[in-house]
Specification:
The protein is built from 8 helices and 5 strands. By secondary structure, the chain is α/β, with parallel strands linked by helices.
Length: 165
Amino acid sequence: MSRFRSLAEKMPPLDRLAEIREDLRRQGKTVAFTNGVYDLLHSGHVRTLRSARSFGDVLILAINSDRSVREIKGPKRPIVPERERAEVLAGFEMVDFVVVFDEPDPGALIDRVIPDVLVKGGDWGANAIIGRETVEAHGGRVERVPVVEGRSTTNIIAKVSGLAE
């Protein structure tokens, strides 16, 4: 994919993603997919995205909506609103598409996109990876990438909270 695409092209509406995926399939592109909250970005996020991109010609990144983040992480999260998170992540060269999903997990989205490679952090057990069965049933694979120890949004928030006191 061209790294010189506009933010609007990199941030398509969710309902266009299946169409985009089908077009990529026709072009013979290998599509990697990963997801997460991606709230306060840190080096672990960057390394995960680089690794995820290495498994495909195209990387689709799905991020949790603000509502779903609150459901998962609690009422004080996210720190950065979904639109800003999506725009920052779309600015990364290794990310080809960013979409925001509203469910607590990406299962329904993975069922629609059916990526060739589903990428998750190594802290996820193979059987706990949502979408694994769908991807493997369609001939794809799951890749787990190493987690950067000590790098987490929770740790950043704790450190900043301690400084504010």
